[in-house]
Here is the input.
Amino acid sequence: MRHPGPKPTESALAARLRAVQDDLTKSEAVIAQWLVLNEAGLGLETGASIAAKTGVSEITVSRFLRRIGFRGMAELKAEVGSAAANLHAHPTDRYMRLLDGELGTLLKRDADAVLGLGAQIARPEWAEAITAIDTADEVFVTGFQTVRGLAEDFARRLGIVRGSVRFISAHDAGLVEWVASARRAQERRALVLVDMVPYAREAEVVVRTARRLGQQVVVVTDELNTWAQAHTPFVFHASTKVGSFLESTGPLATLLNLATHAVAARDPDKARQRISDWPSIMRDLGLY
Here is the structure.
């Protein structure tokens, strides 16, 4: 198989993949894209690890490598490590190059904010908050205005790994979901609230109401929030001010993803079973 030479900004591997990109199956296209995006780290990968990270079988990875001219991972790694592949910057070099520009500076600050979350999840309150979410019979999630989307995404993702999760909007239903029910009077409930500057006027009211009704409350918020601690010990802060025109929601999203993972990790077999059972329920919808 003849391969076109690399463009000035691409590696030899990227050139190989570009030559066949129009004839790839869906699985092959996924592998090809993953290889391009992760080329600098391929020296640490195996056929099995690539298969696991791309969601295909190991034999599919092997066949694809043969199709693009490699007899196996050893030959792929040799090309990635060759002089031609050095055009593809090492992650450290690429990182330092990014720091020279404005967007690179913002990216570094955002990354630092994400790494700073370690101090939050190391607190003993983190494990207690995860327990509150995990053991609740019903979990409510809410967020307002610009972070409503984050809260809705968290509610849907949390609902994949544990049951009885609902996004609620005080404006849409007036918290009718919290009307007392004699049939469910003994159930434990928890609220996860997402908020950031400028804080929604109803946020504190919703938290206060939830506490009055006996709910555990977890607040995921930014570094300037001072009101939530008066209502619950489960307040977790993410840095959002990285110097961009608008606050960064990336660290908040990461903190919510960590919470979803931590809840699932409390009973991984149960979470995996839910994920396994889900496709058969939605199969007739034809969404995928």
In short: The first strand starts at residue 138 and ends at 143. Confidence is low (pLDDT under 50) at residues 83-89.
